[in-house]
Amino acid sequence: MLHAVGIVLVLVVLGTAVATFAGRWGIPAPSLLVLAGIAVALVPGAPTVHVAPDVIALVVLPPLLYASAEEISARDLRRVWAPVLVLALGLVLATAAVVASLALALTALSGAMAFVLGAVLASTDPVAVTALGRRLPLPGRIQVLVQSESLFNDATSLVLFKVAVVAAAAGSVGVFGAVGKFFVLAGGGIAIGAALAGAVALLRSFIDDPVLETVIALVTPYTAYLLAESVDVSGVTAVVVAGIVSGSVAHRITDAHTRLHLHSVYAVVVFGLESVVFALIGLQLPTLVRDLGPGDAWWPLQAAVLAAALIGVRMAWVWPTTALARPTRSYPTWPLTRVVTWAGTRGVMPLAAALSIPLLADDGTPLPGRPLVLVLTTAVVAATLTVQGLSLAGVVKTSGLAVAPEHAAAKEEAARAAMDQAVVEYLDDLAATGKVNELAVVRLRGRYAERLDPDTDAALLEDLAMLRRDVLSVQAAELRRLFAEEQIGDGLRRRLQAELDRREAGLDA
């Protein structure tokens, strides 16, 4: 126990150091963490790391998936549902088939275990994509497309994975049973996630304690996952749906103090978990390689072929999808295809699925091919996180799709101007009615963000404090109007709302 705790602490410290340098060098932290993990594992005397099959799936995935889903705008998701559906279903099935065929031809894996490997590597990873995408100046609709596809294709890949594991362990599988299982897993997960998010939103609307609301927010993803898995439906889908619903209503049911507190706590939790899991991917690879048999010496070449195949299949599927789908066909086809293809990194989800492969078959014998599946999965994940992750920013910049800094700045400035204009109009109306001290209105207009002299009249201070709160409410209402009328995107809305929250918290202080 102490050994495991020590390794986790070391990984968090390693993640902190890596994130510091990654920020200075402009390199995605997940990619650098994987490389750092491999470097540490190769040091003589480094401890051997073995992760229990359920640890990542149960402890790490729910909060990371939930945090990623909360960043998705429900409004923007409705716009891109068609290409998301095509990629989350068709691309996953096509990728699994191609990878399974290649694995059967290149490795000694049985047909069932090759299918397991295809299902494991079929989905992109929402945690990795979100972590990489936070720094990319992509248009909002493309960003939502990439993140949403990564979140929702997990339902398909996990159904395939469960069917493949049953086939590998028992030697049989039914096609009609698999199709029915898919609808049960996906539909049940959606229902549980939406119902839980609604119940949690109702509960939080009656609570005004930031600490208590933070605890509820931290428990929600685990509750969604465990509830869904307990009734044999998709826990991942339940967490994703709960996150999207909660993220869409959070700004209406919480106050500034709670939002600031939640953001701070969740940022620490997500950073710690991401540091551990991405470093663990690199740290485990040398350990898994040592467990391979003598007949699996060609695994580096096999992993390289599989990684190249993943990119090729993804590009072949993304090209017609984005060219024909209404939400994306207005963008240049080839640049958009390059960006969406290159954003399809693998990460935590494939690793968690591979680690959950049972050790023994139904007859009690060791499951053949499991070590090779783990090595190939970890190698492909490490390769995509490093190669694609390190070069994704360059692909975005050369695609012509990147949002110009001056354009983003102008849009933000226009939003701020609209909010300030709403305040001026509100103060003019207030001054005309004579309901408050006229001097308070004048001073607030002239010195909105400045502190007043301590000797100022107490009544004037009270009126100023009241006006400042009213002004913040007016600006928040204007911000909601700008978002509702689609004049600004969800990212800018969240950033400006955070500024208003900090100002409101400062008034209370």
TrEMBL record:
Its main location: membrane. Signal peptide: none annotated. InterPro entries: Cation/H_exchanger_CPA1, Cation/H_exchanger_CPA1_bac, Cation/H_exchanger_TM. Keywords: Antiport, Cell membrane, Ion transport, Membrane, Sodium, Sodium transport, Transmembrane, Transmembrane helix, Transport. It is found in: Cell membrane. The chain crosses the membrane at residues 32-60, 80-106, 155-176, 182-203, 234-253, 265-285, 297-319, 339-361, 373-396. Residues 13-397 form the Cation/H+ exchanger transmembrane domain. It is a multi-pass membrane protein. Gene3D superfamilies: 6.10.140.1330. Belongs to the monovalent cation:proton antiporter 1 (CPA1) transporter (TC 2.A.36) family. Na(+)/H(+) antiporter that extrudes sodium in exchange for external protons. NCBIfam families: a_cpa1. This is Na+/H+ antiporter. It comes from Catenulispora subtropica.
